[in-house]
Each structure stands twice: as C-alpha cells, then as structure tokens.
Predict the 3D structure of the following.
Amino acid sequence: MRGWSLWAVRMLGVASMLVLAAAGARANPDALWDIVHGRCVPDMQESASPAPCTLVSLGAGVERGYAALKDRRGIAQYLLIPTARVTGIEDPALLAAGTPNYFDAAWRIRDLVQARLPRALPRDGFSLAINSAYGRTQNQLHIHVDCVRADVRDALRDNAQQIGAAFAPFAPRLAGRRYLARRIAAAELTTDNPFLLLAAGVNGAREAMGRYTLVVVGMDFAGEGPGFVLLAGRADPTAGNPGSGEELQDHDCAIAR
C-alpha cells in the first residue's frame, strides 16, 4: 500500500507539471509565432523537415508562406499560420495589395483534417474560422481548419437558397449568436478573399476589423454547384460575445462518426 501511495504521489507530480506546462503555453500569446518562426521555418530551411509543423510552404518566400500545425485540441483540427508576422484579423497587412489569401491556403489543407477522420466528409462538413481580437489567445494570425458543427451545417443547408451574394442577417442563430451571411459562388477561394469581402461588404468593418470573426463553410448550392457560405459575426464583450467563430466548429468531429 505504501509503494502504491508513493507511485501515486509521483504520478500526481508528473500530471501537475504537465498541466502547469500547458497553462504556461496558453498564457504566452506568442506561442504559435515562436513555434512557426523559431522551429518550423528553420527546420524546413535547414533540413527540409517542417517539424513540429505538418507542413511548411515557402514557395514564394517566408513573407508569403504559411505553416500547417496540428492543434492539441480535437481529433483532426489544424491551424493555418502565416510564416510572416501577422497579429490577427485586425492587422492592416491583410487588406494590403499583394498579401497572400490565407483563407485559400487554409481551404487547401483540409485534406490534413480528412486524413484523421474515420470516413470521408462532403464539402459542407469542412469549415475555416478566425476569431476576433477579443476571442483569441494568440497574437499570431491562425485559421482553424476543422469539421463544422452538425447543427450549423443543417441550418446552412436548410437556408442555403436565402443566402445571397451580399452580406445580410442570417435568420437562425448559430451557437446562440447572430451572424451575417453571404455566398461565394466558386469551388475554391483563389479569387475571393474573405478578409477583403468583409472590409468591403459590411459597413464600418474596415475601420473595426478586430471586432469581427469570420467563418467559411463549404457548400453545394442546388443548381449552381460548389461554393461557400461566408459568415461574419461582431464581438460584443460587454454582452458576453467574444466574437469567436470557432464556436461553430466541432473539434470532436461528430459528423464524421
């Protein structure tokens, strides 16, 4: 019994250390930047290995590249992270001419998510999300690439024909929040940059980008073919809304089971 107690104490100590280490990582708002800039990019440049990232693309140079990192949360969630220093959705660089379309890159790495799932998902099972400046913990832009919540997918399917080519209020609440919605009539995001669409399509958004969260969900529109639904939500911290579009994702990927 005394031996078991000593073992239990030791294991409790190890577990406590792991919890404290994880808490420390969460408390560091530059943790993602440190991983990508300090480890993934140098490893790719020196040994053609992106570790600890799964993928590093530097085809156009570090200032236009991106990395894909498996998030610790969820069975399949990945983060798309620029290899350039970009703080978040409020960073003016995202609206500047020549800045890469990071949402396009994020959509293209969904196969990494798919590879971790037990069955193939249709287009509308995948989602991309970026949180507002009030709804994030990291000060390096990162787009969450993961499964969409089943109830969100169903609401978008049921109301797809009411979603037009300009932002308008989406009638059903999603995860209890109000969103604006618009459709993107294209199979890829190559020529449709959600950051630019938000800045140009929602009154006042360009001057307050940090207050917004964006979510992209794949869609097949009846009679029109493949496209996307783009959702925009505005943070209101005083009302308990941090502007976290990540809430519309399911990191357990129930729709894949």
